[in-house]
Amino acid sequence: MKMSAEEISQTLKEGELEKRSDNLLQFWKRKTCVLTTDSLNIYADAQKRTRSKELRLESIKKVDCVERTGKFVYFTIVTTDNKEIDFRCSAEDNCWNAVITMALIDFQNKKAIQDFKTRQDNESASPGQQERRMARAP
């Protein structure tokens, strides 16, 4: 999917999230996150913004398991390879899951439109196929 440089660099939300570690003890680690129109960037160090992990929206299947407690909002990002990544944010800053979900829906809609246009262009480029389809019609 081709996007303009303007769309790629557009920041939708920036702030702190806590990510559950993958190790045995599963500690919550505070991360600085930047959500753009095409990815969620997770930084270990808020000051230097080095060692970024990029989670591209094309690799996210869904945002799942939203649960609210008194202090936190918990949610899980499920990737296309069925890996689950757990996050939590403070109840005051509870819209992270919604913003990620809306960015994912927007990305998937744009991709579907682009795929449709590409398919339409390919079909119009080969008129022989249209004739074959019409020949099949009763």
TrEMBL record:
Q: Which InterPro entries match?
A: PH-like_dom_sf (IPR011993), PH_domain (IPR001849), PHLA1/2/3 (IPR042832)
Cellular component terms per the entry's GO annotation: cytoplasm; membrane
Q: Which UniProt keywords apply?
A: Cytoplasm, Membrane
The places in or outside the cell where this protein is found are:
Cytoplasm; Membrane
- The UniProt record lists the PH domain at 10-105
Provide the residue span(s) of the region labelled Disordered.
Answer: 117-138
Topology relative to the membrane: Peripheral membrane protein
Q: Which GO terms describe its molecular function?
A: phosphatidylinositol phosphate binding
Q: Which SMART domains match?
A: PH
Major localization class: cytoplasm
Would you say which domain of life the source belongs to? Eukaryota
Q: Name one GO biological process term.
A: positive regulation of apoptotic process
What role does it play? Plays a role in regulating placenta growth. May act via its PH domain that competes with other PH domain-containing proteins, thereby preventing their binding to membrane lipids.
Q: Which family does it belong to?
A: Belongs to the PHLDA2 family.
Name of the protein described by the UniProt record: Pleckstrin homology-like domain family A member 2
Q: Which organism is it from?
A: Muraenolepis orangiensis (Patagonian moray cod)
